[in-house]
From TrEMBL:
It comes from the Bacteria. It holds the Pfam family DUF2805. InterPro entries: CHP03643 (IPR019882). This is TIGR03643 family protein.
Length: 83
């Protein structure tokens, strides 16, 4: 799978977002959670990767099955700014 710079940036952005579940990344890019972790390890500085892992580990919003049933979207409505 070939990923360009724009897709790399978007995957990293989605992985950092608290409310974007790993399932959304898999649906859009075909990368399961394990693949996202490997991707982040390769594309972040070691310290940034460590911070990211500690941030997402155990976070309920990063997994659809662990989310509250009233959360039905993967992003904040104000996330995408239109010019």
């Amino acid at each position: 799978m070939s990923i360009d710079a724009a897709e790399t940036s978007r995957i990293i952005e989605m992985a950092w977002e608290d409310r974007t579940p790993f399932e959304a990344i898999e649906a859009q890019f075909g990368m399961d959670e394990r693949s996202v972790i490997q991707f982040m390890r390769l594309n972040l500085k070691p310290r940034s990767f460590k911070l990211w892992r500690s941030r997402v580990s155990g976070r309920r919003t990063k997994h659809n099955k662990m989310r509250l049933s009233d959360v039905v979207r993967g992003y904040c409505p104000t996330q995408y700014k239109h010019r």
